[in-house]
Specification:
Largest sheet: 5 strands, antiparallel
Helix content: 10-25%
Strand content: 25-35%
Distance between the termini: 94 Å
Order of helices and strands: HHHEEEEEEEEEEEHHHHHHEEEEEEEEE
Number of helices: 9
Radius of gyration: 42 Å
Structural class: alpha+beta
Length: about 475
Protein backbone atom coordinates (compact mmCIF):
# COMPACT_ATOMS: atom_id res chain seq x y z
CA UNK A 1 0.00 0.00 0.00
CA UNK A 2 2.83 2.33 0.84
CA UNK A 3 4.54 1.69 -2.53
CA UNK A 4 1.37 2.40 -4.42
CA UNK A 5 1.00 5.73 -2.58
CA UNK A 6 4.55 6.73 -3.46
CA UNK A 7 3.97 5.97 -7.14
CA UNK A 8 0.85 8.12 -7.17
CA UNK A 9 2.68 11.00 -5.50
CA UNK A 10 5.48 10.80 -8.05
CA UNK A 11 3.04 10.78 -10.94
CA UNK A 12 1.31 13.88 -9.56
CA UNK A 13 4.63 15.66 -9.12
CA UNK A 14 5.73 14.89 -12.69
CA UNK A 15 2.39 15.96 -14.07
CA UNK A 16 2.52 19.20 -12.02
CA UNK A 17 6.05 20.01 -13.23
CA UNK A 18 4.95 19.48 -16.85
CA UNK A 19 1.98 21.83 -16.43
CA UNK A 20 4.20 24.41 -14.75
CA UNK A 21 6.67 24.38 -17.64
CA UNK A 22 3.82 24.64 -20.14
CA UNK A 23 2.41 27.64 -18.29
CA UNK A 24 5.78 29.38 -18.21
CA UNK A 25 6.22 28.83 -21.98
CA UNK A 26 2.78 30.27 -22.72
CA UNK A 27 3.62 33.35 -20.67
CA UNK A 28 7.11 33.80 -22.11
CA UNK A 29 6.12 33.76 -25.82
CA UNK A 30 3.95 36.94 -25.74
CA UNK A 31 6.60 38.69 -23.67
CA UNK A 32 9.27 37.92 -26.27
CA UNK A 33 7.02 39.05 -29.12
CA UNK A 34 6.33 42.31 -27.31
CA UNK A 35 10.03 43.01 -26.87
CA UNK A 36 10.64 42.44 -30.60
CA UNK A 37 7.83 44.80 -31.53
CA UNK A 38 9.20 47.46 -29.21
CA UNK A 39 12.64 47.23 -30.79
CA UNK A 40 11.18 47.63 -34.28
CA UNK A 41 9.13 50.60 -33.17
CA UNK A 42 12.15 52.22 -31.58
CA UNK A 43 14.19 51.84 -34.74
CA UNK A 44 11.39 53.35 -36.82
CA UNK A 45 11.00 56.29 -34.43
CA UNK A 46 14.72 56.97 -34.51
CA UNK A 47 14.59 57.20 -38.30
CA UNK A 48 17.24 54.51 -38.74
CA UNK A 49 17.78 52.96 -42.15
CA UNK A 50 19.62 49.86 -43.26
CA UNK A 51 23.39 50.48 -43.39
CA UNK A 52 23.48 50.34 -47.17
CA UNK A 53 24.91 53.84 -47.20
CA UNK A 54 27.38 52.94 -44.52
CA UNK A 55 28.51 49.89 -46.44
CA UNK A 56 28.56 51.86 -49.70
CA UNK A 57 30.58 54.75 -48.30
CA UNK A 58 32.98 52.38 -46.58
CA UNK A 59 33.45 50.40 -49.79
CA UNK A 60 33.98 53.58 -51.81
CA UNK A 61 36.54 54.86 -49.34
CA UNK A 62 38.33 51.52 -49.41
CA UNK A 63 38.39 51.48 -53.21
CA UNK A 64 39.71 55.04 -53.39
CA UNK A 65 42.40 54.27 -50.82
CA UNK A 66 43.45 51.10 -52.60
CA UNK A 67 43.60 52.75 -56.00
CA UNK A 68 45.57 55.77 -54.87
CA UNK A 69 48.06 53.81 -52.80
CA UNK A 70 51.30 52.76 -54.42
CA UNK A 71 51.21 49.53 -52.50
CA UNK A 72 48.41 48.18 -54.66
CA UNK A 73 50.50 48.57 -57.77
CA UNK A 74 53.48 47.02 -56.07
CA UNK A 75 51.46 43.95 -55.08
CA UNK A 76 50.31 43.42 -58.63
CA UNK A 77 46.69 44.37 -57.97
CA UNK A 78 46.99 47.38 -60.28
CA UNK A 79 49.21 48.15 -63.28
CA UNK A 80 52.68 49.39 -62.40
CA UNK A 81 53.80 52.99 -62.79
CA UNK A 82 55.40 52.09 -66.10
CA UNK A 83 52.02 51.13 -67.45
CA UNK A 84 50.58 54.50 -66.44
CA UNK A 85 52.65 56.28 -69.07
CA UNK A 86 51.11 55.71 -72.47
CA UNK A 87 53.36 55.05 -75.44
CA UNK A 88 51.36 55.46 -78.64
CA UNK A 89 54.35 55.03 -80.89
CA UNK A 90 54.46 51.28 -80.23
CA UNK A 91 50.97 50.02 -81.14
CA UNK A 92 50.94 46.81 -79.10
CA UNK A 93 51.62 48.36 -75.68
CA UNK A 94 49.52 47.53 -72.64
CA UNK A 95 46.83 49.93 -71.33
CA UNK A 96 48.35 52.99 -69.78
CA UNK A 97 45.85 54.26 -67.20
CA UNK A 98 45.21 52.92 -63.73
CA UNK A 99 41.64 51.61 -63.47
CA UNK A 100 39.64 54.15 -61.49
CA UNK A 101 36.36 53.68 -59.59
CA UNK A 102 33.34 54.08 -61.84
CA UNK A 103 31.75 57.46 -61.35
CA UNK A 104 27.97 57.73 -61.74
CA UNK A 105 26.97 58.23 -65.37
CA UNK A 106 25.03 61.40 -64.64
CA UNK A 107 25.68 62.85 -68.12
CA UNK A 108 27.02 60.89 -71.10
CA UNK A 109 28.12 62.38 -74.44
CA UNK A 110 28.34 59.88 -77.30
CA UNK A 111 30.71 60.29 -80.24
CA UNK A 112 32.33 58.61 -83.23
CA UNK A 113 35.87 59.75 -84.03
CA UNK A 114 35.96 61.52 -87.38
CA UNK A 115 32.25 62.49 -87.26
CA UNK A 116 31.34 65.93 -85.88
CA UNK A 117 29.19 65.56 -82.71
CA UNK A 118 26.05 67.72 -82.28
CA UNK A 119 27.14 71.33 -81.85
CA UNK A 120 30.80 70.29 -82.13
CA UNK A 121 33.42 69.82 -84.81
CA UNK A 122 35.92 67.30 -86.23
CA UNK A 123 39.20 67.57 -88.13
CA UNK A 124 42.93 66.78 -87.98
CA UNK A 125 45.66 67.97 -85.60
CA UNK A 126 49.21 68.67 -86.77
CA UNK A 127 50.58 67.51 -83.40
CA UNK A 128 49.17 66.18 -80.15
CA UNK A 129 49.43 66.62 -76.36
CA UNK A 130 52.32 64.84 -74.63
CA UNK A 131 51.22 62.30 -71.99
CA UNK A 132 53.18 62.70 -68.73
CA UNK A 133 51.49 59.64 -67.14
CA UNK A 134 49.39 61.47 -64.51
CA UNK A 135 46.57 64.06 -64.54
CA UNK A 136 47.79 67.59 -65.30
CA UNK A 137 45.03 69.32 -63.32
CA UNK A 138 42.80 68.85 -60.29
CA UNK A 139 39.77 70.71 -58.99
CA UNK A 140 40.68 74.14 -57.68
CA UNK A 141 44.15 74.04 -59.26
CA UNK A 142 45.78 75.43 -62.38
CA UNK A 143 46.68 73.07 -65.24
CA UNK A 144 50.28 72.25 -66.13
CA UNK A 145 50.75 72.24 -69.90
CA UNK A 146 52.78 69.08 -70.74
CA UNK A 147 53.85 70.24 -74.21
CA UNK A 148 53.34 68.64 -77.61
CA UNK A 149 54.81 65.63 -79.36
CA UNK A 150 54.45 63.71 -82.62
CA UNK A 151 53.67 64.78 -86.18
CA UNK A 152 50.10 64.27 -87.42
CA UNK A 153 47.63 64.25 -88.82
CA UNK A 154 45.71 63.03 -85.75
CA UNK A 155 41.91 62.76 -86.02
CA UNK A 156 40.00 64.76 -83.40
CA UNK A 157 36.43 65.57 -82.29
CA UNK A 158 35.28 68.55 -80.20
CA UNK A 159 32.38 68.49 -77.72
CA UNK A 160 31.22 71.67 -75.97
CA UNK A 161 29.78 71.72 -72.44
CA UNK A 162 28.55 74.74 -70.49
CA UNK A 163 28.35 75.40 -66.76
CA UNK A 164 25.25 77.60 -66.78
CA UNK A 165 25.04 77.73 -62.99
CA UNK A 166 26.12 80.67 -60.89
CA UNK A 167 28.99 78.85 -59.20
CA UNK A 168 32.08 76.85 -60.28
CA UNK A 169 31.61 73.08 -60.71
CA UNK A 170 34.25 70.48 -59.85
CA UNK A 171 33.68 68.10 -62.76
CA UNK A 172 34.92 64.52 -63.23
CA UNK A 173 35.52 63.70 -66.91
CA UNK A 174 35.88 60.06 -68.00
CA UNK A 175 36.72 58.86 -71.53
CA UNK A 176 35.34 55.37 -72.29
CA UNK A 177 36.12 53.47 -75.50
CA UNK A 178 33.09 51.49 -76.74
CA UNK A 179 34.00 49.72 -79.99
CA UNK A 180 35.19 49.94 -83.60
CA UNK A 181 37.79 52.13 -85.21
CA UNK A 182 40.45 51.82 -87.91
CA UNK A 183 43.90 50.34 -87.14
CA UNK A 184 45.18 51.05 -83.61
CA UNK A 185 42.61 52.88 -81.47
CA UNK A 186 44.35 54.71 -78.62
CA UNK A 187 42.44 57.86 -77.67
CA UNK A 188 43.16 60.79 -75.39
CA UNK A 189 40.85 63.53 -74.07
CA UNK A 190 42.01 67.08 -73.26
CA UNK A 191 40.04 70.14 -72.13
CA UNK A 192 40.48 73.59 -73.68
CA UNK A 193 38.79 76.97 -73.53
CA UNK A 194 35.95 77.37 -75.99
CA UNK A 195 35.91 77.82 -78.90
CA UNK A 196 38.55 75.32 -80.03
CA UNK A 197 40.46 75.36 -83.33
CA UNK A 198 43.10 72.83 -84.42
CA UNK A 199 45.92 75.35 -83.87
CA UNK A 200 44.93 75.65 -80.19
CA UNK A 201 46.47 72.23 -79.51
CA UNK A 202 49.82 74.04 -78.97
CA UNK A 203 48.33 76.99 -77.04
CA UNK A 204 49.21 76.58 -73.36
CA UNK A 205 47.10 79.64 -72.44
CA UNK A 206 43.91 77.88 -73.64
CA UNK A 207 44.77 74.43 -72.23
CA UNK A 208 42.66 73.34 -69.21
CA UNK A 209 44.08 69.86 -68.46
CA UNK A 210 43.67 66.12 -69.10
CA UNK A 211 44.28 62.67 -67.60
CA UNK A 212 47.89 62.56 -68.78
CA UNK A 213 47.34 59.15 -70.38
CA UNK A 214 45.45 57.57 -73.29
CA UNK A 215 43.04 54.63 -73.36
CA UNK A 216 45.73 52.21 -74.56
CA UNK A 217 45.29 48.88 -76.28
CA UNK A 218 43.47 46.95 -74.86
CA UNK A 219 41.54 50.00 -73.73
CA UNK A 220 40.87 51.29 -70.23
CA UNK A 221 38.89 54.31 -69.05
CA UNK A 222 40.86 57.52 -68.42
CA UNK A 223 39.65 60.03 -65.81
CA UNK A 224 40.58 63.46 -64.51
CA UNK A 225 38.91 66.32 -62.64
CA UNK A 226 38.83 70.05 -63.32
CA UNK A 227 36.86 73.09 -62.17
CA UNK A 228 34.55 74.65 -64.79
CA UNK A 229 33.94 78.33 -63.88
CA UNK A 230 30.41 79.66 -63.48
CA UNK A 231 28.58 80.55 -66.71
CA UNK A 232 31.47 79.27 -68.83
CA UNK A 233 31.67 76.99 -71.86
CA UNK A 234 34.67 74.69 -72.38
CA UNK A 235 35.75 72.32 -75.17
CA UNK A 236 36.42 68.60 -74.63
CA UNK A 237 38.78 67.43 -77.40
CA UNK A 238 39.00 63.68 -78.13
CA UNK A 239 41.84 62.61 -80.44
CA UNK A 240 43.69 59.45 -81.42
CA UNK A 241 47.38 59.41 -80.53
CA UNK A 242 48.28 57.38 -83.63
CA UNK A 243 48.51 58.99 -87.06
CA UNK A 244 45.38 59.08 -89.26
CA UNK A 245 43.54 56.99 -90.36
CA UNK A 246 44.13 55.25 -87.02
CA UNK A 247 41.08 55.67 -84.80
CA UNK A 248 38.70 56.65 -87.63
CA UNK A 249 35.17 55.49 -86.73
CA UNK A 250 35.97 54.55 -83.11
CA UNK A 251 32.85 54.82 -80.92
CA UNK A 252 33.40 56.39 -77.49
CA UNK A 253 31.60 58.02 -74.56
CA UNK A 254 32.47 61.05 -72.43
CA UNK A 255 31.00 60.52 -68.96
CA UNK A 256 30.46 63.58 -66.73
CA UNK A 257 29.36 63.56 -63.09
CA UNK A 258 27.34 66.81 -63.31
CA UNK A 259 23.79 66.58 -64.65
CA UNK A 260 23.69 70.25 -65.65
CA UNK A 261 25.76 69.51 -68.77
CA UNK A 262 23.03 67.24 -70.16
CA UNK A 263 20.13 69.56 -69.27
CA UNK A 264 21.14 72.00 -72.00
CA UNK A 265 20.39 72.11 -75.67
CA UNK A 266 23.14 71.54 -78.13
CA UNK A 267 25.61 74.39 -77.59
CA UNK A 268 25.75 77.03 -80.25
CA UNK A 269 29.11 76.59 -81.96
CA UNK A 270 30.06 80.21 -81.71
CA UNK A 271 33.55 79.06 -82.53
CA UNK A 272 32.94 79.71 -86.21
CA UNK A 273 31.96 83.32 -85.58
CA UNK A 274 35.38 84.27 -84.25
CA UNK A 275 37.23 83.39 -87.46
CA UNK A 276 34.93 85.85 -89.24
CA UNK A 277 36.51 88.50 -87.02
CA UNK A 278 39.64 88.08 -89.10
CA UNK A 279 37.52 89.25 -91.99
CA UNK A 280 37.51 92.68 -90.44
CA UNK A 281 41.16 92.88 -91.42
CA UNK A 282 39.92 93.11 -94.99
CA UNK A 283 38.50 96.50 -93.99
CA UNK A 284 42.05 97.77 -93.52
CA UNK A 285 42.91 97.24 -97.19
CA UNK A 286 40.39 100.04 -97.84
CA UNK A 287 43.25 102.25 -96.68
CA UNK A 288 44.68 101.68 -100.13
CA UNK A 289 41.82 103.78 -101.43
CA UNK A 290 43.21 106.83 -99.70
CA UNK A 291 46.19 106.99 -102.09
CA UNK A 292 43.63 107.08 -104.91
CA UNK A 293 42.37 110.33 -103.44
CA UNK A 294 45.49 111.94 -104.98
CA UNK A 295 43.57 112.21 -108.29
CA UNK A 296 42.28 115.46 -106.73
CA UNK A 297 44.97 116.95 -109.00
CA UNK A 298 42.39 116.41 -111.75
CA UNK A 299 40.49 119.28 -110.18
CA UNK A 300 42.89 121.58 -112.04
CA UNK A 301 41.16 120.83 -115.36
CA UNK A 302 38.19 122.77 -113.95
CA UNK A 303 40.30 125.88 -114.44
CA UNK A 304 40.56 125.13 -118.15
CA UNK A 305 36.79 124.76 -118.27
CA UNK A 306 36.29 128.27 -116.94
CA UNK A 307 38.78 129.65 -119.44
CA UNK A 308 36.87 128.32 -122.40
CA UNK A 309 33.63 129.61 -120.93
CA UNK A 310 34.85 133.19 -120.80
CA UNK A 311 36.10 132.91 -124.37
CA UNK A 312 32.64 132.09 -125.67
CA UNK A 313 31.07 135.02 -123.89
CA UNK A 314 33.19 137.58 -125.77
CA UNK A 315 33.37 136.24 -129.29
CA UNK A 316 33.16 139.74 -130.78
CA UNK A 317 35.76 141.21 -128.48
CA UNK A 318 39.17 140.23 -129.65
CA UNK A 319 39.61 136.81 -131.17
CA UNK A 320 43.31 137.15 -130.56
CA UNK A 321 42.66 137.18 -126.84
CA UNK A 322 40.91 133.87 -127.09
CA UNK A 323 43.87 132.39 -128.89
CA UNK A 324 46.30 133.40 -126.16
CA UNK A 325 43.92 132.13 -123.49
CA UNK A 326 43.82 128.71 -125.08
CA UNK A 327 47.58 128.56 -125.30
CA UNK A 328 48.08 129.31 -121.64
CA UNK A 329 45.36 126.88 -120.64
CA UNK A 330 47.00 124.04 -122.47
CA UNK A 331 50.29 124.86 -120.86
CA UNK A 332 48.88 124.62 -117.36
CA UNK A 333 47.09 121.37 -118.26
CA UNK A 334 50.31 119.75 -119.38
CA UNK A 335 51.80 120.54 -116.00
CA UNK A 336 49.49 118.04 -114.29
CA UNK A 337 52.10 115.21 -114.65
CA UNK A 338 53.32 116.58 -111.34
CA UNK A 339 51.30 113.85 -109.58
CA UNK A 340 53.76 111.38 -111.07
CA UNK A 341 56.09 111.96 -108.14
CA UNK A 342 53.34 110.54 -105.98
CA UNK A 343 54.46 106.96 -106.76
CA UNK A 344 57.26 107.83 -104.43
CA UNK A 345 59.81 105.15 -103.83
CA UNK A 346 58.32 104.68 -100.39
CA UNK A 347 56.63 101.43 -101.52
CA UNK A 348 59.97 100.13 -102.74
CA UNK A 349 61.58 100.39 -99.28
CA UNK A 350 58.80 98.04 -98.14
CA UNK A 351 60.60 94.97 -99.49
CA UNK A 352 59.83 93.14 -96.30
CA UNK A 353 62.93 90.95 -96.45
CA UNK A 354 63.19 91.83 -92.78
CA UNK A 355 60.71 89.06 -91.96
CA UNK A 356 63.25 86.72 -93.49
CA UNK A 357 65.34 87.46 -90.42
CA UNK A 358 62.51 86.13 -88.22
CA UNK A 359 62.85 82.52 -89.46
CA UNK A 360 66.04 82.43 -87.45
CA UNK A 361 67.68 79.07 -87.24
CA UNK A 362 66.99 79.08 -83.50
CA UNK A 363 64.00 76.67 -83.83
CA UNK A 364 66.19 73.94 -85.29
CA UNK A 365 68.59 73.83 -82.34
CA UNK A 366 65.62 73.53 -79.98
CA UNK A 367 64.47 70.41 -81.84
CA UNK A 368 67.86 68.73 -81.53
CA UNK A 369 68.37 69.75 -77.91
CA UNK A 370 65.00 68.31 -76.81
CA UNK A 371 65.55 65.64 -74.18
CA UNK A 372 64.31 62.15 -75.05
CA UNK A 373 63.48 59.42 -72.57
CA UNK A 374 64.40 55.85 -73.45
CA UNK A 375 62.14 53.03 -72.25
CA UNK A 376 61.67 49.34 -73.00
CA UNK A 377 58.64 47.11 -73.53
CA UNK A 378 57.99 43.70 -75.07
CA UNK A 379 55.97 42.40 -78.00
CA UNK A 380 54.78 39.35 -76.00
CA UNK A 381 55.22 38.26 -72.40
CA UNK A 382 56.19 34.62 -72.94
CA UNK A 383 57.51 32.23 -75.61
CA UNK A 384 58.22 28.54 -76.07
CA UNK A 385 61.04 26.70 -77.84
CA UNK A 386 61.48 27.93 -81.40
CA UNK A 387 59.39 31.09 -80.90
CA UNK A 388 60.51 34.75 -81.02
CA UNK A 389 59.64 37.80 -78.94
CA UNK A 390 60.98 41.36 -79.15
CA UNK A 391 62.41 43.70 -76.55
CA UNK A 392 61.37 47.09 -78.01
CA UNK A 393 63.54 50.04 -76.98
CA UNK A 394 61.78 53.33 -77.81
CA UNK A 395 62.02 57.10 -77.28
CA UNK A 396 59.48 59.54 -75.84
CA UNK A 397 59.00 61.93 -77.47
CA UNK A 398 60.12 60.52 -80.79
CA UNK A 399 61.40 60.20 -83.38
CA UNK A 400 65.16 60.29 -82.92
CA UNK A 401 66.72 63.42 -84.39
CA UNK A 402 69.95 61.50 -84.94
CA UNK A 403 70.99 57.86 -84.35
CA UNK A 404 70.89 57.09 -80.62
CA UNK A 405 72.57 54.03 -79.09
CA UNK A 406 70.84 52.77 -75.93
CA UNK A 407 72.78 50.46 -73.61
CA UNK A 408 71.30 47.56 -71.64
CA UNK A 409 72.14 44.53 -69.51
CA UNK A 410 70.49 41.09 -69.33
CA UNK A 411 69.59 39.16 -66.18
CA UNK A 412 67.14 36.51 -64.99
CA UNK A 413 67.09 32.75 -64.53
CA UNK A 414 67.29 32.05 -68.29
CA UNK A 415 70.84 31.73 -69.65
CA UNK A 416 71.90 33.69 -72.73
CA UNK A 417 73.35 31.36 -75.35
CA UNK A 418 71.90 28.26 -73.67
CA UNK A 419 68.21 28.96 -73.21
CA UNK A 420 67.90 31.83 -75.69
CA UNK A 421 69.76 34.07 -78.15
CA UNK A 422 69.53 37.80 -78.91
CA UNK A 423 69.98 39.67 -82.19
CA UNK A 424 72.31 42.62 -82.70
CA UNK A 425 75.34 43.81 -80.77
CA UNK A 426 75.28 42.46 -77.20
CA UNK A 427 74.52 45.13 -74.60
CA UNK A 428 73.38 47.86 -76.99
CA UNK A 429 70.75 48.73 -79.59
CA UNK A 430 70.72 51.71 -81.97
CA UNK A 431 67.57 53.68 -82.84
CA UNK A 432 68.05 55.17 -86.34
CA UNK A 433 67.43 58.86 -87.08
CA UNK A 434 63.76 59.45 -87.82
CA UNK A 435 62.66 56.24 -86.05
CA UNK A 436 60.73 55.90 -82.80
CA UNK A 437 62.15 52.56 -81.68
CA UNK A 438 64.45 49.59 -82.36
CA UNK A 439 64.03 45.91 -81.45
CA UNK A 440 66.20 43.18 -79.96
CA UNK A 441 64.74 39.78 -80.92
CA UNK A 442 64.82 36.95 -78.35
CA UNK A 443 64.78 33.41 -79.82
CA UNK A 444 63.94 30.58 -77.37
CA UNK A 445 66.22 27.55 -77.66
CA UNK A 446 64.64 25.33 -74.99
CA UNK A 447 61.37 24.73 -73.21
CA UNK A 448 62.30 25.88 -69.71
CA UNK A 449 60.38 27.70 -67.05
CA UNK A 450 62.80 30.62 -66.83
CA UNK A 451 62.81 34.36 -67.56
CA UNK A 452 65.07 36.84 -69.36
CA UNK A 453 65.08 40.45 -68.16
CA UNK A 454 66.44 43.50 -70.03
CA UNK A 455 67.43 46.55 -67.94
CA UNK A 456 68.29 49.84 -69.67
CA UNK A 457 71.48 51.62 -68.63
CA UNK A 458 72.24 55.38 -68.73
CA UNK A 459 74.08 56.72 -71.77
CA UNK A 460 74.67 59.83 -73.90
CA UNK A 461 71.81 61.30 -75.93
CA UNK A 462 68.96 59.98 -73.77
CA UNK A 463 67.76 59.72 -70.16
CA UNK A 464 65.89 57.13 -68.07
CA UNK A 465 62.78 57.69 -65.95
CA UNK A 466 63.97 55.54 -63.07
CA UNK A 467 60.63 53.72 -63.02
CA UNK A 468 59.45 50.29 -64.13
CA UNK A 469 59.60 51.19 -67.83
CA UNK A 470 63.40 50.88 -67.63
CA UNK A 471 62.96 47.09 -67.25
CA UNK A 472 61.12 44.44 -69.32
CA UNK A 473 60.90 40.64 -68.95
CA UNK A 474 60.11 37.76 -71.34
CA UNK A 475 59.37 34.34 -69.84
CA UNK A 476 60.50 31.16 -71.61
CA UNK A 477 57.90 28.58 -70.62
CA UNK A 478 57.47 24.86 -70.97
CA UNK A 479 54.81 23.34 -73.24
Amino acid sequence: MKNQADLKIKAHLIRGAFYLLLLMAVCAIPFALGQRSAIKQGVANAGLKPDVNLVSSTRTAAIDTALTSTGAAANGLLPSSAESTSRSDVPFLKPQQLPLPKYPSVCTLNGTLGTAPPGGDTGNLATRIFRPGAPTVMCGGSPTFPGNTGAGPFIYNVHYITNNTGSPLCTTVTLHYVSGGTATVNMQLSAFMAPFAAVDITNSARYLGDAGVSTGNPPVDTTFQLTVPANTQIALVVFNVNVSPAGQGAVYQIILDQDTYCQQGSPTPTATSTPSATGTASATPTATRTPTVTPTATATPTATATATATATRTPTAAPTATATAIATATATATFTPMPSPTPTSTPTPTPTPVPSATPTVTPTPTATVAAQEAYVTVSRNSVRKGQNAAFIVALDPGPAAQPITVFYSMSGSARLGTDYTLTGTPGQVTIPAGAFSASVILHALKNVNRSATMTLLPGPGYFLSGFDDDVATIRIRKK
